[in-house]
Amino acid sequence: MQVEPTNRCNLDCEICIRRFSKRPLGDMKVEDFQRIIDVNRPLYVAFHGWGEPLLNDKIYEMITYASKKRAKTSLITNGTLLNEGSAKILLNLKLNELAFGVYKLERLKEIKDKVKLVSSLKQKFKLKEPKIFLDITIYERNESEILQIIEESSRLGVEAINVHRIFHLYNSEFKPLSTHREKQLFQKINALTKNYRMKLILPKKHSYPCRIAKNCIFVTWDAMLTPCCFMPDSCLADALKVSIKEVVKSREYKEFIRNMNSHPVCSRCVI
C-alpha cells in the first residue's frame, strides 16, 4: 500500500507532475489512516505521494501505528525539513526504510548534511534499521550526473540505491533514456554500487499488466483508492467505506488490469 500523507510540498522540483495537478491541497487525517490500516491490514506501507510527508505533523503517529500493526514501513523525503530532533524521532519509530529522493547532484549537495546526520545518528544508536536509501529518478538530462550522485552518497553513509525511470505525463522534455543508454548506465551503476557495497534496486523491464498496479494500490491524502500514484484522480473507491480486497475483486478493477495496454496513462508508462 502506498499512502500519500500530504500533497503539499515545500519544493517545486522541475520534474514533478504536481506542478500540473489541480487537486486540492491537504493532509491525511491520522484517524482516517488508522481506519484504513485496520480494515486492510497491509504487509507494507510506503509513505510517499505528490508531496513532502514530513509536512504532515501526524506522520510520526502514522508510522508508529503501521509498525504496531506489523506492517513494514518506508518513507521517502526530500530531506530539507530534517533536523536532529526529527531525525531522532524517525530513527526511533521502527521505520524499516528511509529514502532521500534526488534527481540532481546539486539537490543532493543541498541536503548532504541532513543525510550525514541521519547516518551518524543511526551508527551512534547502533541501529540496524531504517536502511538508508537514495531514491534516484533517471532521465536524459541527468544521465551524466548519476554516477557522481552515487559516489557522493556513499560518503554520506547511504546504504542502498533505488533507481527508477522518469514518467512525466505532461512535459515531453523530460524523457527516459533509450534502452541502449539505460543498459549501459545500469552496468556502470551496478559496478559502482558493488564497489561501495551498497544495495542496488534497478527497475525491471516494463510489461503489462503492470507489476506495480497488480501488487500495490495508491491511497491519496483524502482517502481515495486509486490504481497508481500517476492516476490520483482515478478514484476506484472511498478507502473509508470500501476495503482494498473489495476493490481488487470488482469487475471495474479487473477490467482496468486487463486493458492496461490501451489505457491513456498506462499505455505510455515506462516505470
Describe this structure in words.
- This protein has 271 residues and is an alpha/beta fold.
- It contains nine helices and ten strands.
- It has a ten-stranded mixed β-sheet.
- The mean pLDDT is 96.
- What does the radius of gyration come to? 18 Å
The overall pLDDT average reads 96
Strand content: 15-25%
Following the backbone from N to C, one meets helices and strands in this order, namely EHEHEHEHEHEHEHEEEHH
Shape, principal axes of CA atoms: globular
Helix content: 25-40%
Structural class: alpha/beta
Task: Name a few traits of the molecule.
single chain, 271 residues, 9 helices, 10 strands
Topology:
Elements: E1 2-3, H1 30-40, E2 44-47, H2 59-68, E3 72-77, H3 84-91, E4 97-102, H4 105-124, E5 131-138, H5 146-154, E6 160-165, H6 179-195, E7 199-201, H7 211-215, E8 218-219, E9 224-226, E10 237-238, H8 244-248, H9 251-258
Parallel strand pairs: 1-2, 1-8, 2-3, 3-4, 4-5, 5-6, 6-7
Antiparallel strand pairs: 8-9, 9-10
Helix pairs in contact: 1-2, 3-4, 4-5, 5-6
